[in-house]
Amino acid sequence: MGMDFSTLRTLISRYCVGEENWVDSRTVYISHKEPPPGTEAFIQQRFPDNRIVSSKYTFWNFIPKNMFEQFRRVANFYFLVIFLVQLIIDTPTSPITSGLPLFFVITVTAIKQGYEDWLRHKADNAVNKCPVHVVQDGKVTCKQSRKLRVGDVVFVTEDETFPCDLILLSSSRDDGTCFVTTASLDGESSHKTYYAVQDTKAYKTEEEVSSIHATIECEQPQSDLYKFVGRINIYMNNEPVARPLGSENLLLRGATLKNTEYIYAVAIYTGMETKMALNYQSKSQKRSAVEKSMNDYLVVYLCILISKAIINTALKYVWQADPNRDEPWHNERTEAERQRHILIRAFTDFLAFMVLFNYIIPVSMYVTVEMQKFLGSYFILWDDEMFDEELGERAVVNTSDLNEELGQVEYVFTDKTGTLTENNMEFIECCVDGHVYVPHAICNGQVMPGSDTIDMIDTSPGPDARDREELFFRAVCLCHTVQVKEEETVDGIKHGIHQGKSSSFYISSSPDEVALVEGMNRLGFTYLRQKDSHMEILNRDDKVERFEVLEVLSFDSVRRRMSVIVRCSTGEVYLFCKGADSSIFPRVISGKVDQVKARVEHNAVEGLRTLCVAYRCLSPEQYQEVCHLLSRAKLALQDRDRQLAEAYDLIEKDLILLGATAVEDRLQEKAADTIESLHKAGMKVWVLTGDKMETASATCYASKLFRRNTQILELTTKRTEEQSLHDVLFDLSRTVLRHYGGMTRETSSGLSDDYTDFGLIIDGATLTAVMRPGQEGSNSGNYKELFLDICRNCSAVLCCRMAPLQKAQIVKMIKTSKEHPITLAIGDGANDVSMIQEAHVGIGIMGKEGRQAVRNSDYAIPKFKHLKKMLLVHGHYYYIRVSELVQYFFYKNVVFIFPQFLYQFFCGFSQQPLYDTAYLTLYNISFTSLPILLYSLIEQHINADILKKDPSLYKDIAKNSLLKWSSFIYWTALGIYDAIVMFFGAYFLFDNTTFTSNGQLMTTNTQMMFGNWTFGTLVFTVLVFTVTFKLALDTHYWTWINHFVIWGSLLFFVVFSLLWGGIIWPFLNYQRMYYVFMQMLSSGPAWLSIILLITTCLLPDVVKKVICRALWPTTTERIQTKRRCLASEPSTIFMLSQTSSRMSF
């Protein structure tokens, strides 16, 4: 039995897995053909169909699933509990009072989410039902996309979109390549080249493709768009031939076929297993500081609510200690009530008081905030100043939950290439063995006219240097992944390699490579094309040279280099290698290293991007060894990336240095102005880049990140080699603290932005050492805190040679430091995604490195310069608006419910409501909701142009200043004051009551009929007018919409009250409000009381604002006052201008 089990395990390992330890794989049978007998077991696996489902709900689960999600929110669940309590026990208010607002909030949210999901269903159906052409039994048939299965061979024509993830089998091109755009996946509009399997590229017809007998073994689906590992086993004469498959063979769903007539490909991932679908998954939820403050305030108000209920419950039983009060003659208890235990009665009363006072918790605040964020996000989308004509793109809002967070940013982490710079490369020069070559200026040792100002070193190569020079040019022309495209195929846009010689142009996923190939073209060596595995170049003598491409060792961010192995016409085999200086110099064994290194460092200081070029001649034995290493690594299904990296490491060694290139990446328009504005706004800007220190440092000076008076502190590998990391950190710490220790009061108050500050430069290797956990018995555990102390005292930090993960670690380190500052990360490439997702706010730039950053960001902008308005204007407005919304909601609910609390002291704690049910229900829904929503959408406390011109205004709202506890306490105290004034003002108005002859209770001083509903209506009327006028006083930006909504909401309250009390409503079982409102308004003293109470309520807030503006004005208030002064004398200004114009004549 044990033997059988072992055999079974071996069979499973062999047939299902393919390799001993590799279990996470799938086997795909092309055209669903079984493998030949005796080769391998046929085990048909089950795969999903090609149906795409991006929707969240179905018709059947929408209501239960949506309700579950909504009641997971604390506020909604709380009001549901209150509503159920009202239904179960005898409470003083109707269940409608809490049920209707809750129903409104839940319904509005459900309709919004349901509509959004319906749109997703609609889009899914359009995709799932589109026609797809499939090869079956030697014929092309049409079927719906959703019916496509793994293993089907698909026929795709030019400009069609791939219906699922496919492995390319053959194409209409002789070399088996096809061109694809992946704009819908990563935003790259350039044409990428993909390759067919070598053994199947010759199959051009349906019959030939149907005859293919092969299986594909590959990894299970994963979300990485740029990674794929697999192999294809092609059966020829029942003998399998294995070929490696990589990302260059994989056509992704959503990509489009270009410049290729047709292709045949086999489906390997379908439906929700495609890489595009796996990237649908939502990012982790980010919460803004305002939302956290809201939840904190909610907890405080919940404690206040519980305290009120406990106090009233206790006082009720103290009041009822007297038997006459406990059971008066007009309200005798039933026998069941008398028998009930006192604790049960007390708990029931406690719940009843909770219900009575529960309106202090503003349930509608959440839906109002949600609407404000959703609608407010359109102001970014509609902003014409953030539209880029060159790209034809507007700003994009991927999440509206963080709008106000844009006004709270303290740290900005930015990428360099493509973010601060244009990522539009221009070839500047190259250096071969110490001789400089500048296109159209210095070439072949000859100085061209008009180039006297060019910085040169020895530019006169000797007679023996010509061969080395041409070998360098050939290396640059061959070591790349550039494709040549014909002019007429590119949407009518004309491009050319050079005038009069070619009607083609270069494209590549890397702008550097295009710049280098174009630079070589200007120096006399033109790359023509790659055809049939041969690359052709045109030399200076106008002769075509052909090189057979044997292997391409692709570039990756870890090696930071790429290589190509070619065979020239004489039969010699060369390995040409191109990469960063830090990855080439350690592998060089000869060449003029010192001269080239000096030029590389010189160019880096000038801010140029440099690459080094080296070569190696391979003997036939060495080439065979290289082929063996690469073949074994490429066919591996387990850890293929690691095995390839090890193979590349063994191959790319013993190089001979040829020279270096320099390309320029210009600074983006207004990048320097944007960084300067961010500094003035109090933000600290960090640049995180993979570039070398000298290049990045030059860019930082150009972009004004570092100023002339900035003292640069270096924490680099070079310095830590001379001193220990411990000593370097303590030296830097002493330098910073000594400087700030002697410049405390006078410096911070007397100096402006020019006051000397520090800039820190750190590289990736040193950062790794700083972040490494300390060993026992050492002091290294304090390095991180010491590093943070240094960074806090630096206005700008440059982190160079950063890996993508290190960028995220830096952001996380600052984000989780003891101050918990708000962080923003901005970048344009895939290597920036990790830090964009880590930061509180992530912003993607629509650059040339694809759209991965845009897809994974919270917001996206066309250019770096748009960040200025995004933060200083939109962020400022959003924060001002939403902070007022939150504080105002809590304020108006305190004013609303505190009179109810006071009223219990005058009604024997009988849980008698002060307000009518209709007023309780509609207060937050109708009477006071629209004015604050409109305020939170269009308020502009200061002009947008001034916010841009004076970035220091951003400091007024920094560190959540408008939602601090002091501000919250002030608003709450103001609400309690207003409630006391309203209640006791109305109470004293109703003092000295007498009975009339017909039994009505009437006040002797106002001759107005008195009753508890009249009293409550008077308080409620003063309440609605006071909270609305309070908002009107806070409004700085008045439009006709403000006037319509504010005065319209007051008019609606009056009209509703007249109708509610002027008609006997047949569906009500009570008519207690009949004629109450009209009778109250018929009394002249009531009108006077309303006006006096509203004035008394608003007066302290007005006085406080006047005193604070006069004695302790903020920068914003000074500008508001100045603008009012200028606006108040327009005629004077006009007359002065007229006078001056006449005098000039």
Commentary on this structure:
- 45% of the residues lie in helices and 18% in strands.
- By secondary structure, the protein is an alpha+beta fold.
- Helix 29 links the parallel strand 35 and strand 36.
- Helix 3 crosses helix 4 and helix 8 (289-319) packs across helix 11.
- The chain is elongated, with a radius of gyration of 38 Å.
Global geometry: elongated
The number of distinct β-strands equals 38
Number of helices: 40
Estimated share of beta-strand residues? 15-25%
Helix proportion range: 40-55%
Task: Report the span from N to C terminus.
Answer: 115 Å
Provide the CATH superfamily of the largest domain.
Answer: Calcium-transporting ATPase, cytoplasmic domain N
Work out the radius of gyration: 38 Å
Assign the structural class, choosing from mainly alpha, mainly beta, alpha/beta, alpha+beta, or little secondary structure.
alpha+beta
Number of domains: 5
Q: Could you report the average pLDDT, rounded to the nearest whole number?
A: 79
